[in-house]
Amino acid sequence: MLKYIRYKTGKLIYGALSGVLAGFVSVYAYLYAALPMQISAQAGASLGDVGFSPAVLRQTSRGAEYFLGNIPIKRAEITETERRYVIPSGKPFGIKMLSDGVMIIGAAAGSPAEEAGLREGDVIISVNGAEVSSNEELSAAIRECDNCAELVYRRGESCVSVSVATMLSDGVRKIGAWVRDSAAGIGTLTFVEPETGIFGGLGHAVSDATTGGAVPFGQGEITAAEIFDIVKGEKGAAGELCGAMLPEELGQLSANTPTGVFGKLDKTNGDRLVTDEKIPAAFRQEVKPGTATILTTIDGSEPREYSIEIERINLADLTGSKGMLIKITDAELLEKTGGIVRGMSGSPIIQNGKLAGAVTHVLVGDPTRGYAVFAESMLEKAQ
After folding, report:
1. Residue 139, helix vs strand vs coil
2. Can you give the pTM of this predicted structure?
3. What is the mean pLDDT of the segment spanning 65-86?
4. Helix or strand or coil: residue 70?
5. Is 204 assigned a catalytic role?
6. Which residue out of 266, 271, 299, 330 is catalytically annotated?
7. CA distance 381 to 383
8. Catalytic status, residue 146
9. Residue 39 pLDDT > 90, yes or no?
10. 208 is catalytic
């Protein structure tokens, strides 16, 4: 009997140890694969206690190296970079954007467009050799065709040429596609770089309301805006800041990217966003799980500071728009908005006196939580 008990006890201990070891190996393997090999750091700065939780970076005799506790994971290559200083904003701003080409948002069943293989998200850039950049230009070019139009369209990174039959509808030549050439909306301005006038906002791309894909950037501008109402977010239903774009133009857009919209302020009106209150921008490895604040505007046009918690660093999307998982903890903000709502995208996140990132997405199942982009990811695009 005693022998049997010893056997069972040994088996249980072995099983427990095997489980712990398997869990450790799993975490180690994930960190090894996910931790970035190349990172930027301020010239001349020591690493200190930085990294991507639960891994930390340390300077060793072999160079910079990631550790899990006292166990080395892998080395990292550090590129010395001048730290950038920016003015965190939190102000609402209007976005007016014209697309580069004309985006298809749908095709009628059995139409020439559908039969030619055109689909939602394709961007028409020319008809019979003539470039088109607006709905009006596309319609005019199709009207001048006889029975067939030679279209060039962009799908992803590829350009495709196709012959599309035209059809007569109310005496007008058409191809049976619904199209869109522009986008407009309100978001939150993240930062302004005072020396250059470069600005960044939104934290993610401006997307088409129908296709969900990023609007291919042609040209655009930003305007002043103000918030006049709030639709409070609830579980399963995202809330929204209700606002209006004002006629005051603040700057010109230059890019619509996965980590935000960027451009340069106008000297006339945009300069009023430039103040002396600039702060350093954090490198990704300096941002840690823990307390932080956001600057956001939920009434009028002046931002206020609210408390949040950075819950987790998302190693799977360090350079994308979901690099952090955050949670709103401020009682007043939760009472008024229910958490993160549409229109807050771009709200700057401040941690330890540095611009850590910007709010980007809400978790519809739990509006108190959402994602954020690293400031470094935005600044890499703000050139």
Report:
1. helix
2. 0.86
3. 87
4. coil
5. yes
6. 330
7. 6
8. no
9. no
10. no
